[in-house]
Amino acid sequence: ARRMAWLLGERPGQRVGFTVRGERAVSPSTVVEVVTTGVLLQRLQRDQELAGVDVVILDECHERHLDADTAAAFLLDLRAALRPELRLVAASATTDAAGWSALLGGAPVVTARGVTHPVDVVWAPPARPVRPPHGTRVDPALLTHVASVVRRALAERPGDVLVFLPGVGEIERVAGQLGGTADLGAEVLRVHGRAPAAVQDAVLAGPSGGRRVVLATAVAESSLTVPGVRVVVDAGLAREPRTDHARGLGALATVRVSRAGAEQRAGRAGREAPGAVYRCWTEADHGRLARFPAPEIRVADLTAFALQAACWGDPDASGLALLDPPPAGALTAAREVLAAIGATEPGGGGARGRGGRRSRRPNSW
């Protein structure tokens, strides 16, 4: 939203506004409101007609986050039952266009080619094998290698460097290995979901004279455009939700990035001028990566999804239009948890008052 407002020469909250958890910038003149999928789900649960909204754009739909898939299903249900004139757009540079077209009822596929610049691919694997990620653990040898590739990129290429790492811990470790501005010859910035807005604003403001190294999680893969970036260094990892069946709990796991994700990351180097991406794996390994990220609905804990479905009035989710149906066993287990804590009626029925309150608190599980 800040980027779009900047392109219009305005501040957020004028023609382009936004709503995220704990912060909102809108006004009577706002015609485009950027929201998170969590905010959209809460709004749909409160107002199932989505009054005052003519078009909903589901951006970066290739990421297949559970909230996004749920929101898409609710919007399709809403359009079929109450708002046939509501327009839905699923947008991404690397998605399964045919699948989304079918889900949206045979919607046309529109290809828009923006201004892009060539991006050289540099394969930069570690000299020695590193241990694969396990849980949230990443081999320190890989992080040391990433830091060395950043130094190499600074020496070989002009412009700012954007580095993709799976989480905050890895960002801090690589930052520590890079050292200060005087040693590196560049300012080191950190961008992640918990970073203060002031830090993100500084990154989005662009270069202020010297070179910058921006260490980022996947939030910069599609959500942010960082001015001045000519080089991307990709560690090749992502952090995604998974179900720990041994404990019966959801947890984050570090996994290999998909080819679609790697393509999105590489594209950040060619937004403003020709650039380069340094991939910390081999070309042969690249061919073995999954084409797209695993849909969260297949692998994540479904308790929050089951509660959203119950509050929507479809406890078993059988009436929801989803690209991938939820695994029957995982959904049954989630519904049993909800019934056990009194969030839904016994026997897997609709949501009780407590469950409705929890559905409006997406991080309460």
From TrEMBL:
Residues 354-365 have a biased composition (Basic residues). The keyword Nucleotide-binding applies. Residues 1-113 form the Helicase ATP-binding domain. InterPro entries: Helicase_ATP-bd (IPR014001), Helicase_C-like (IPR001650), P-loop_NTPase (IPR027417). It comes from the Bacteria. Gene3D superfamilies: P-loop containing nucleotide triphosphate hydrolases (3.40.50.300). Residues 142-313 form the Helicase C-terminal domain. Keywords: ATP-binding, Helicase, Hydrolase, Nucleotide-binding. PANTHER family: ATP-DEPENDENT RNA HELICASE HRPB. This is ATP-dependent RNA helicase.
